[in-house]
From TrEMBL:
All residue ranges annotated as the GPR180/TMEM145 transmembrane domain in the record: 531-748
A Gene Ontology biological process term: G protein-coupled receptor signaling pathway
The protein, known as: GPR180/TMEM145 transmembrane domain-containing protein
Organism of origin: Timema cristinae (Walking stick)
Keyword terms, alphabetized: Membrane, Transmembrane, Transmembrane helix
């Protein structure tokens, strides 16, 4: 598997803040409230001063502390920060937002329910708060930490009874991440634990599981990982964490020697060095691009002292050059769709994409993702609708698009969809089917209620999970909008909308995905491997046939070699398109079409060769009978086949789950092929009736049997495909047709090999009297009595 994520390097750079002396020492940091470039970084100095700052800003905002007691724990979440003081009081900052970094005031949280408990550590998630007291007991309060700041009622604290195994071992810190199933803890022996069996309807979990591998003094939980700081100051990341694999897979060390660490929801890292100075983490990645190798990163340092240079051996270099050569080809349309739409067209169908079945043991990495940007160059009063629907909802929606009255069309199209689609006002418990577009420039779409689920540098993300089966999803845009009374209306306003959308199977946040699965719709997954296998077969077969053609110059050999070369070129063009598509989601559409046309020409040329041989050309005669008829039918078949391909590409509605052989032109080509097969058998029978050479008859028997299999497989497989799901039908047809063609070429190469074909083909340039005598001796009107010839002659009769 080729890793298209590139090679990465890590760098910790010092961060300076305006208005502060360079010698300021920091005590605590909290970046858990940051998502990408939104939110606040909270910092507490050793002298007890509290500051906040935007993640990419050098300006600081100072906030007064709520009391004189020292702050022992600083806990942040999106748009909220909690302070825990040494005398076990908890304060929440009210009024925090993206436009108001400082908030308004501090509110003390009532802890009357757990009076007498001395909390020593707290952590805020998105839907819960966890805390640990000085006796090692752990508590959980359900609800949004942001909402608790303004709530009139105090949260209910639930005691988690379970404690770590062993005498005199107790918890000292507990941490919760943006995902509810991410709850981790540390004990007084620096062991790391994870909370088991946390679900949306049971957020307390059932127990603690020891996570071996490292010792830790601090943890920080991002949206997809756990970051740990060891007693020696080393930093580790826990990989592979999902809802069904809450413990993750392994720890991986990253460079650095630090005193404290904190991570954002989107995996941004800040830290304190050994001198308590502020550091920010940068990741530099070396990637392949169209012009060679490109270096990208969060920031590029002025010097390379902190970077390690990675070198590759000669074989790796050749592999890189091969793939770079593929990337330099021209761009065409594909699953990464880019374009524009004007709302006066009312409806725009974008693409059909098959999402794979979600792996229950690795859910996050096996989800389907649809993400991108949709913007407009003009201001709009009402938004249009961007819809991502499965087949059950799409058919009614799609069928009503042609209603003449567009006001009624909108109402009918969303009649069924509205019963299930999420809307903040109309149906807040619905499924994630719709987005209001265009999205505000430089901001997330207004429907994105969970910003950390949105892929970085994009405005919207649909995450598709199906634990039962793979499924097709249909993506479209329509000039309809929903008003405040939840009724759908026609958007009678013209605007241009630009879109840039990705559709993938697997998480875009990991770099080790399989490129032969990631970019492909589920019905096209693994086809790249099929093309590669047959390409290797032809790489062996084509040179052999070219060698045979140099040894045996004859029209039969030339015609077969031309057919084989056409097939090989077709496969090369299609393979280049598929490989490029695997890495950029676009491919080279022109080369794919050219490959398909060459494939059709190859098969029709091969069919002509079979007909000519069935008529005995170059076997029993060198002149053909009914030559105009043969070539007319062959030409007509080729034209009809190409017209079928064009018709299938342009006229068949992509919404219909049918292939080219389930349409009337498809059945026409199958009937045509069957009639040619019957004609082939008729001509072969006539040729064999007048042939008495044993070697030639043996050739005709083997040739006829193999050619009959090649003729008959397509009608049979077309009938079988009627019973196969559209999710697997393309791969079935592709695998069988390419296998049958490759086998037919191998058999024909064997039959036409010079050492064999000289026995039964009329291939000699000059007359060979010995061959003619052999044919004469084997003729039925010549009687050879080899027994009498072997007896000595009777000389007495001759003398007499």
């Amino acid at each position: 598997m080729f890793n298209v994520g590139g090679r990465g390097g890590h760098c910790w750079s010092k961060v300076s803040r305006k208005g502060l002396l360079p010698l300021v020492k920091w005590q605590q940091l909290s970046a858990e409230g940051i998502f990408e470039d939104k939110g606040q970084l909270w910092m507490l100095t050793q002298s007890g001063d509290l500051f906040c700052s935007r993640p990419n800003s050098s300006s600081l905002h100072s906030l007064p502390l709520p009391c004189n007691s020292p702050v022992i724990c600083l806990a942040a979440a999106p748009f909220t920060v909690w302070l825990l003081t040494a005398n076990s009081r908890v304060f929440i900052r009210q009024g925090l937002s993206d436009t108001c970094l400082d908030g308004f005031t501090w509110r003390e949280l009532s802890l009357a329910q757990i009076e007498g408990v001395k909390l020593r550590h707290i952590s805020c998630g998105c839907d819960a708060v966890w805390a640990c007291d000085d006796q090692g007991s752990v508590y959980m309060a359900m609800g949004s930490p942001h909402a608790m700041a303004d709530s009139t009622f105090s949260p209910v604290w639930i005691h988690a009874d379970e404690k770590p195994a062993g005498k005199k071992i107790f918890f000292t810190k507990v941490y919760v991440g943006p995902q509810i199933y991410m709850v981790w803890a540390i004990d007084n022996k620096r062991n790391v634990y994870v909370r088991e069996a946390i679900f949306h309807d049971f957020m307390l979990g059932v127990g603690w599981m020891l996570v071996s591998g490292i010792e830790a003094t601090e943890l920080s939980l991002s949206g997809s990982a756990v970051w740990a700081l060891s007693p020696g100051g080393s930093v580790y990341r826990r990989h592979g964490i999902t809802q069904n694999n809450f413990i993750g897979d392994y720890w991986k060390k990253i460079p650095g020697s630090l005193a404290a660490i904190t991570s954002s929801v989107s995996d941004g890292l800040w830290a304190l060095d050994k001198n308590n100075g502020l550091l920010k983490h940068s990741l530099l990645t070396v990637r392949l691009c169209e012009k060679g190798i490109k270096i990208v990163g969060d920031c590029l340092p002025a010097t390379d002292d902190d970077w390690e240079v990675l070198r590759c051996d000669s074989s790796s270099r050749y592999a890189l050059l091969f793939f770079c050569a593929i990337f330099t080809l021209q761009v065409a349309s594909g699953m990464h769709i880019v374009g524009s739409w004007n709302t006066k067209d009312f409806f725009k169908f974008l693409v059909k994409f098959g999402v794979q079945k979600t792996n229950p043991h690795n859910q996050k990495e096996s989800h389907g993702y649809i993400f991108g940007n949709i913007t407009s160059r003009s201001n709009v009063t009402n938004p249009a609708a961007f819809a991502v629907l499965d087949r059950g909802y799409f058919l009614e929606y799609y069928g009503n698009r042609s209603v003449a009255n567009k006001e009624k069309a909108c109402a009918r199209m969303f009649n069924k969809v509205s019963t299930m689609a999420f809307d903040e006002k109309c149906f807040d418990q619905g499924e994630d089917f719709l987005r209001k577009v265009p999205c505000p420039k430089g901001q997330l779409c207004v429907d994105e209620d969970i910003p950390w689920n949105v892929i970085k540098h994009h405005q919207f993300t649909f995450i598709i999970e199906d634990l039962k089966q793979p499924r097709f999803w249909y993506i479209s845009m329509v000039a309809c909008y929903r008003d405040s009374s939840c009724q759908w209306h026609h958007l009678d306003e013209e605007m241009d909308i630009d879109y840039d959308i990705w559709l993938v199977n697997g998480s875009p946040n990991i770099s080790g995905y399989n490129p032969f699965l990631y970019q492909f719709s589920v019905d096209r997954q693994d086809t790249a491997e099929l093309y590669l296998v047959f390409f290797l077969c032809y790489v062996v077969l084509v040179p052999l046939q070219l060698y045979a053609a140099t040894r045996q110059k004859h029209p039969v050999t030339r015609l077969f070699t031309a057919s084989l070369l056409l097939e090989f070129l077709a496969l090369c063009f299609i393979l280049i398109h598929v490989l490029k598509f695997a890495f950029d989601g676009v491919g080279v559409g022109g080369m794919a079409v050219a490959g398909d046309i060459l494939d059709i020409l190859s098969r029709t040329t091969f069919m002509l060769l079979l007909l000519l041989l069935a008529k005995g050309w170059a076997v029993t005669r060198m002149e053909l009978t009914y030559k105009p008829l043969v070539f007319a039918i062959w030409f007509l078949y080729g034209v009809v086949h190409i017209l079928l391909y064009v018709w299938n590409m342009t006229e068949v509605d992509i919404v219909d789950d049918i292939d080219e052989y389930q349409t009337w032109p498809g059945w026409l080509i199958i009937v045509f092929r069957t009639l040619i097969m019957v004609w082939f058998l008729y001509e072969l029978r006539n040729t064999m009736m007048y042939e008495h050479n044993t070697q030639k008859l043996n050739f005709f028997l083997h040739f006829g049997a193999s050619a009959l299999v090649w003729f008959i497989y397509l009608p049979i497989i077309a009938l079988i495909a009627l019973q196969v799901s559209a999710l697997w039908r393309f791969k079935l047809l592709l695998g069988i047709t390419y296998s049958a063609d490759c086998l037919a070429y191998c058999v024909m190469t064997h039959l036409l090999w010079p050492a064999r074909s000289e026995q039964y083909f009329l291939l000699a340039e000059e007359a060979d009297l010995g061959d003619e005598l052999d044919e004469f001796n084997e003729a039925p009107h010549v009687i050879n009595n080899y027994t009498r010839l072997s007896e000595p002659p009777d000389l007495s009769k001759i003398i007499a």
